[in-house]
Here is the input.
Amino acid sequence: METNNQQLREALDHILDRYACDEVGEQIQQIKNLAQKYPHSISLVHEAIPNKPETFSFNCYQHSFDLVNVEPVDRIMRTRPSVFPGREYVGFLIDNSLREIRVQDAQDGDHVTPLTCVLSTRGKSGPEPSNQNGN
Here is the structure.
């Protein structure tokens, strides 16, 4: 399996853009279907079903940064609902902690941040994913 497959990343970006809001449930099957063209190891960790808050355990940012089932994080989120590891949190990390690396230099554990997704709410956008590494 090829690592840092730009075509796979672009196909994933398309799926995430195309199947959002009311059609977000389609993402799972579409990502599975990608394996026929671009072999990958992407798997469903936990499905959050729209309009069923009881299925909302964590978001992709929490999962990516290992913040799932971390008691201090859970406690903060329970007592201060406005504090949430979302786009603003990742934007803060990008501005203050992470550094950009070239795609070909990415390694396991690095965070890939699609600029069009994360930074568009911060007044920036770009067509290419940006790898972020906290080391």
Observations:
- Strands lie at 99-101, 111-114, 129-133.
